[in-house]
Amino acid sequence: MIASLIRLVALPTMARGLRDSATDAATRAGLTLAAGVVGGVGLLCLSYAGLTVLQREMDPAAAWAIVGGLYGAAGGGLYFAAMRRRRG
Fold first, then answer.
1. pLDDT attached to residue 5
2. pTM for the structure as a whole
3. Pair 64, 51: CB distance under 8 Å
4. Rounded CA Rg of the chain
5. What is the dihedral of CA 12, 15, 20, 21, to 10 degrees?
6. Does the CA dihedral 86-75-35-29 come out positive or negative?
7. Deepest in the core among 36, 54, 69, 73, taking most CB within 10 A?
8. Cα separation, 16 vs 49, whole angstroms
9. How many CB atoms lie within 10 A of CB 55?
10. Helices 2-57 and 60-87, interaxial angle, to 10°?
11. In this predicted structure, what is the pLDDT of residue 29?
């Protein structure tokens, strides 16, 4: 009998904790999404600026090849770093 009364009294506190957890999770997800969008826009702008500078010095195909090679190398490095971290 006392255990059920204690659970009944503790129920609002547990519900508040769940609401706070849900709010924190939603905030974290929103900030992660916003950081991803801002990072993508920044990467696009930086790429365009670098491509513009490279195209002034060489032909456009070579400039695109250099930018693509840099992204390929960065992607490969991130892939291998993620695989190394996963293995332990």
1. 67
2. 0.60
3. yes
4. 25
5. 150
6. negative
7. 54
8. 49
9. 15
10. 150
11. 92
Distance CA 43, CA 36 (A): 10
pLDDT at position 74: 92
In which residue are the tokens 């365009």 written?
Answer: 48
CB 55 within 8 A of CB 63: yes
Q: Which residue has the tokens 């490095």?
A: 77
pLDDT at residue 88 in the model: 55
* 9-65 pLDDT tens trace: 677 777 777 777 888 888 999 999 999 999 999 999 999 999 999 999 899 899 999
In whole angstroms, what is the distance from residue 38 CA to residue 32 CA? 10
Scanning the structure block, which residue is given the tokens 């904790």?
17
> Residue 19 and residue 25: Cα distance in Å, rounded?
10
Angle made by CA atoms 52, 53, 59, in degrees to the nearest 5 = 75
For residues 8 and 57, give the distance between their C-alpha atoms in angstroms, rounded to a whole number: 74
